[in-house]
Amino acid sequence: MTTMLNPRTHGPDHPASYYVDTARYDQRYPQLTESIQADVCVVGGGFSGVNTALELAERGYNVVLLEAHRIGWGASGRNGGQLVRGIGHGLAPFRKALGDSGMAEVEAMGSEALAIVAQRIERYGIDCDLRWGYADVANRPRHWRELQADVEALKKTSLGDQFELVPPERLGEVVGSDRYLGGVVDHGSGHLHPLNLVTGEARAAADLGVRIFERSAVTEMVEGEPVRIKTELGEVTAQRLVLCGNAYVAGLNKTLAGKVLPAGSYVMATEPLDDATAKRVLPGNHAVCDMNVALDYYRLSADNRLLFGGLCNYSGRDPHSIEAVLKPHLERVFPYLKDVRIDYQWGGMIGIGANRFPQVGRLQPNIYYAQAYSGHGVNVTHLAARVIAESIHAESGRLDLLEKVKHITFPGGPRFRSPLLALGMLYHRLKDVL
Fold it and tell me: In 271-373, which residue ranges form alpha helices assigned H by DSSP?
């Protein structure tokens, strides 16, 4: 039977998904019911919040983490599991703000983010099915030209040997589909089980002394030095505050809420495929993403299920049946999987910024934030956490660099910003088709 959920109406526990049924770390944390003090209070129990807490605990700080539901309840525990190099969706528009040296530094951060994830998994022994290998595949001739140009440019950098251009006649070595015109394999990117990663990292943070509280939604923040963060039954007084609500930041801060748009994203998991079929679908066990605006992305799980995602939805309305809308996409890519059974389907909200550059900075000298990863959250969250921890610990000025990129507020207010963006994305999808 297919497991289904409505991603907007489920309760405080983890929504049903393949990841929940294969979770290895099911530790639970108490609800905050008293007044406590900390050096730093972190709000949000996803990758950004958990890793900020972990980075600070490694530096000796007394940290409290507040999560409204469960650790990994949001996008961190529901996403497609693709660990992809890079910061944002292309840096060229930000050269003026960052400068040449800043551009080089931010580009290097895209690879550093992958290294942070790998180091964290190794250091704390986190069992999250990490596999290396990721491919971008071209749907159209212009996509193929772009990939060739990208690899040619990368050959001139220290990362050149990480990337392999795969021409059409060899693409069957990467993906068992005739839908694409070529591809590029990034041997330094990959895929993993995201819920096991974030809950494994939370366990590591707790072992280092981070006090984690679930079912502890913030009801009020009182700015100042110190800052006071109130929940329904408790309160935290801290010298610094880090807000990591991302797509669920509405209600925490109006300024941040206006700069990030929650967008629905959806994933299906098939029944386990036999070894021969799995090898036909993804011969090298790569994670794959196409280059359409309305993109498809997919990978194999540790037990040979095809996890197939897409349907980024800006309208604010979820499909009645994820399978009914997403399965035709799967069948167009892999017609021979037409009769495969879908065992799971789920969705959730990712945070989108207007310029698709991650938003990492400060609202006040002692109030930090990280959000709007626009689909690159598995790796960039870890980088954002490190940069914030470095700033708090006065280790580097990298936060100052990221703050040079300015982020606009979406027009239309809370009521109309989603429909307006949906219209804009429809325009770009029509350009793709035409």
Answer: 275-281, 322-333
